[in-house]
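Anyone opening a protein record will find just a pair of labelled lines. With that in mind, the following record should read easily:
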Amino acid sequence: MNVVTALKRAGIAGAIAFGLFSLLIGIRTDTGPTGALTLTGRPDTLAILVAIAFAGTFLREIVIGDRRIDFGRLVPPALAARGPKIASVLAPALLAFAIAVPVIWYGDRYILDLSIMILTYVMLGWGLNIVVGLAGLLDLGYVAFYAVGAYSYALLAQNFGLNFWIGLPLAGILASFWGVLLGFPVLRLRGDYLAIVTLAFGEIIRLVLLNWQSFTGGPNGISGIPRPSFFGLPFNNDDGGFAATFGLEFSSTHRIVFLYYVILVLALVTNLVTIRLRRLPIGRAWEALREDEIACRSLGINTTNTKLTAFAMGAMFGGFAGAFFATRQGFISPESFTFGESALVLAIVVLGGMGSQVGVAIAAVVMLGGFEFFREFAQYRMLVFGLAMVAIMIWRPRGLIATRVPSVFLKERKMVAAELVEEARK
């Protein structure tokens, strides 16, 4: 590579970095003593980022040039061949670790709360995986079903006095009903058009929750949502509470541990139901719809029912997660159900590998745990995670776990590599 050409390309990269980061990084907004917004320049930080972009591009052009880097070859073939065996061992190991988390970190409230949040997003990821990973329907408004489940449980508990165990299935049923309502208008849409409609649906639900103040509380939200009990035993310091009944010293951690195991069981039920559905005719119809809708229709599969069932099942598990979120927080408001939540859950599904249950769980742990790890670097963590997501999509375009296990096989079960799937599509 010519040095002059490398300098030109590095200069272009530096100019692009300056244009992107001049407002994002170069200027910082703060609240002044009078409450007015003040702007503070950070030219040193901006110069460092531009210099990194310039130097990185220059070195890349000098060392690599126009050659394409095959990141897939960075994984040794022997390790790639053992991928299915590693995955079969990894899933039970993750389950055992998840069960032992409250025992290991019983006194650490921060770890327990973080684990509950991660399991909630794992459940949301597995629910969205039905719609996106199995059926191939791009849904950008999944947070709407999350919100419907949360508000359904909150309103049922406050207005009718229903406890969590009765309100949980009702919240899932109501969310599933809204999933069917969304499915009808988008039966003939696909690709970008489907994404736009689902995005609009999520925003419609949020705006309804925000403006229907007499019913949803509007921007003030709903507070005082009842907490779940252990077979009727509340987690308080009374004589009839959980601690007094079992002769334990009262601790607020008991309720947190109980909530942890509740969301763990809900997530495992979501996983088992999804795996079972994938092996049933409806699951095979979802996968056929994902690969080619026209061929799916030519085989006599009712694509209308297939899409509606995918939306309904995914929405139901989103509603379950929403009901748990409401009872865990004790307070909900429309600000908890923005588009950012849908984008985060979709990123977990895509990065983990569409259709891969273990991949979704690993992606949720990495992304949510990574967010907390970089909390001290709040100004740069979104930038770091954006770069990490771009790197993963270059290295593993089909997700962290791209192999698939066929639901139907003739003589023996074999993994289907992502490269063979891409060749078949060509």
Summary: The radius of gyration is 24 Å. The chain is about 65% helix and 5% strand.
